[in-house]
């Protein structure tokens, strides 16, 4: 009705697109081996009719005033729209959808046309003591979109989907002014027409928005070159009660604690972001993603670090561990003819060279720039890869990765409909701690699988290099056959992994944000004094608690966290956050 | 007595070091021409006996408790130490010193040995409702160290000079844990012994500390490679009332609004920084600073931008305008023999090529890395320089710049003692706005010189390239012969320049911070809504207003700003902060 398209109410992406195991003969045996699941049975997506959606809580006066602002077409309060705007796409959200477990559903959805309408909506809602939750692509996986369960006030979801334009490009400065509701493809399409790219490609790219990226401190796959969203965003505008926060585009400034950085990661709690000035780059002459194999994860990690400290410049440096490498092969189409021959020859050669193919790790490294520059960088990388025992596989494998890079969530939904739960936990830590963190996390997950008495699978990739460290991205899965215990089993594993991050010098999340999911670990992540500073800012800036309350920091009421859905809260704040790892 | 050395109470650097015009025959004529000043008369530095230092305000109980913490040697309340810890090294500070114009002088100086002592001092002072002002190298030039004039409570200066150690180096991650009181040379000496560098070289390097750099959002000369201090600092510890804020070293994180970024630029208002984890880099194989000449500033700026958007990697890209180029030559030693011949031949060649030597601009570009990498980058730069009409002068001129890069403040003091005022204003703006900002700032300054009815001189250099823009750094001077009007004349010029930044899409300061000097422009710089967010944070985190009150944001009392020393406050907040420059 609004003209704004949304993802499936029950899963990732739009209706009609999903993971298809046909022509991928290795997938079913892989899943069977990994988590004991038989995927031959057809999946059963949930039915909307089965949901019991509570009636909206809104008085006529506020509804009428909101209608006056946006018009009838752009105020929606039917059940489907309200449910779509209540949950994100985290596995907890999707498990709950499948159990009909809705709690506080947003009461009304409005689609403002421009910043002036956002201002009117914000002022009306705060004056009426309603709650405002901004909505971009709805891809959040940390519970940042859902109202708090005990919320009694009217909850208004502000969908920015109509505000999706690139407003201007400053060609001379490499800056573009873009509306917050623009989704990844809308941004790149509009920029691309004029020869520019923002270079920000998170996994959620197709279904996430500029405003969402800023609000959650997002990072894209090519951050080695383009930086985190915190680097990319140079100015922004956000609507607060009775005023617009207006930060002009500046390359750098020393005017006090950075207000730009306060809004980045604020998850709707400081106002509604309406537009931003972002760094944009000329589409490069050459862009190549090259595939590499390493004999094991350790040698691969060593190579990644050496590449990062060398004179080489890359756009992405990524390596999967052996489990994720196996999963990659398992989701590929069966290879035929010459391709099959080449791969078999290659594997034969590696075996003869003494490689244990069960331990082999697949790596992708990306290059951009002038042709000569790309060649120079590839030469440096090749030398380092070879030194660490790896081999260059080439751009064929690289382009397969490049074309499939946004598709992983579809596999998650496919499994969910067939009786398995899969989720992700990602973090960063200094280089010196990477292997330790990897080992302890795998161990913590396996221990948690044992505790839960279930078969389970965990895999990992390394990505996002920084001067002092990098990101480890874990994906885990376990069977979900017994509805009585499966949520708790999942929760046990998820908690064990996140707690291991806290206990071993890593952060609660590198690029997924906090929401209500990660909030219980904040005092350990940034120390109790750190949460006090965040609280001073968030509460001081929003005394009525109208802007997406309960996210990032809870109000301290036990049980309010989405996180503690049906399991006990983690054991409070330990003294460990005071420690710093030693060299 | 404390063993911690300080700068001159009346000027830059330590006693015995200053600018010496001998052997620089072009300097006196240059100053005469620029601002009509005859420098042949000897300078008259002020005498400490002439100062009337008010008695300290502290009750015996607090003094005794502080003594118990640090011991007799490390609590100082003699007049000299109190004055040294009250003022920074801004030209306003030094003009006031020369007039005996002290206002609120700090009451006592303590030198804690470690973080535990800082915690005790902080707790004692907040419990006694005293004011705490942290002190590093004392080089601040924006009035961040001085108590507010109306402060009635006891003011304690916490000098971190004893906390100057590199505590550990994480060799594998390129991270070092360093105490906040360490000055630039102390840091580089300790790191250099183990083959590392932090690469952070602000103009104040010799007399500024890590804690000061963090508290003011500092940037070093080689930021093109090493980044701003906000990029370099990955974790930190800061003492607050009853607690330590402890942020572990993380390459990147998405845990809500960045607390790390809240402390960076907080100027003592969120607590006392005791140590930080910073990025450190291996001392490069090759480091070269190359000099270039351009026919004029415009062609030079175009070249700087093209270098930055090319595949070349530099550590510093800098170009002086014609006035600053003339000043550079005027402060050089007389050249003899072969050097003189080479330069004369070069100038002759340029004249024949049609250059107007009065418009010629001197540029320095720095390179680091492996020998081959440096050569590749120099080749790309040479091609771009040539395309824009410039020529390579070589590493001889470059190394002169490199050896003199920290010396400019001595010339300022030399002039001040001989009847001239000189000060700086620096900012950033997007590339598309650089030339407009340069032109309008020069015009605003010249107009202000006319308004004040005085001769004046302004020069500028470009430095610190970012993706979307860069820094312009202006230095201006005017004669200071008439004590009755000279301060007001200076103030007229300084205000005109800063206001021009605000009116033309630039920030109040790129790397000098806010203090009390720039505070009046904050609402224009970050919009009134931005100052509300800063206020929510600063006031919420320090309800008793004990931590360096009045800095960054004033309490709104007219006349409290150091800025409005003896001139009216600027005309309030204009609506212009709401505008963003269009492409």
From TrEMBL, chains A, B:
<dbReference type="GO" id="GO:0071949">
    <property type="term" value="F:FAD binding"/>
</dbReference>
<dbReference type="InterPro" id="IPR036318">
    <property type="entry name" value="FAD-bd_PCMH-like_sf"/>
</dbReference>
<dbReference type="InterPro" id="IPR016167">
    <property type="entry name" value="FAD-bd_PCMH_sub1"/>
</dbReference>
<dbReference type="InterPro" id="IPR016169">
    <property type="entry name" value="FAD-bd_PCMH_sub2"/>
</dbReference>
<feature type="binding site">
    <location>
        <position position="412"/>
    </location>
    <ligand>
        <name>substrate</name>
    </ligand>
</feature>
<keyword id="KW-0285">Flavoprotein</keyword>
<feature type="region of interest" description="Disordered">
    <location>
        <begin position="564"/>
        <end position="583"/>
    </location>
</feature>
<dbReference type="InterPro" id="IPR016166">
    <property type="entry name" value="FAD-bd_PCMH"/>
</dbReference>
<dbReference type="InterPro" id="IPR006094">
    <property type="entry name" value="Oxid_FAD_bind_N"/>
</dbReference>
<feature type="site" description="Important for enzyme activity">
    <location>
        <position position="318"/>
    </location>
</feature>
<dbReference type="Pfam" id="PF02913">
    <property type="entry name" value="FAD-oxidase_C"/>
</dbReference>
<feature type="active site" description="Proton donor/acceptor">
    <location>
        <position position="473"/>
    </location>
</feature>
<dbReference type="GO" id="GO:0016491">
    <property type="term" value="F:oxidoreductase activity"/>
</dbReference>
<keyword id="KW-0560">Oxidoreductase</keyword>
<dbReference type="GO" id="GO:0008610">
    <property type="term" value="P:lipid biosynthetic process"/>
</dbReference>
<keyword id="KW-0274">FAD</keyword>
<protein>
    <submittedName>
        <fullName>Alkyldihydroxyacetonephosphate synthase</fullName>
    </submittedName>
</protein>
<feature type="binding site">
    <location>
        <begin position="267"/>
        <end position="273"/>
    </location>
    <ligand>
        <name>FAD</name>
    </ligand>
</feature>
<dbReference type="GO" id="GO:0008609">
    <property type="term" value="F:alkylglycerone-phosphate synthase activity"/>
</dbReference>
<comment type="similarity">
    <text>Belongs to the FAD-binding oxidoreductase/transferase type 4 family.</text>
</comment>
<dbReference type="InterPro" id="IPR016164">
    <property type="entry name" value="FAD-linked_Oxase-like_C"/>
</dbReference>
<dbReference type="InterPro" id="IPR025650">
    <property type="entry name" value="Alkyl-DHAP_Synthase"/>
</dbReference>
<dbReference type="InterPro" id="IPR004113">
    <property type="entry name" value="FAD-bd_oxidored_4_C"/>
</dbReference>
<dbReference type="Pfam" id="PF01565">
    <property type="entry name" value="FAD_binding_4"/>
</dbReference>
<feature type="domain" description="FAD-binding PCMH-type">
    <location>
        <begin position="102"/>
        <end position="283"/>
    </location>
</feature>
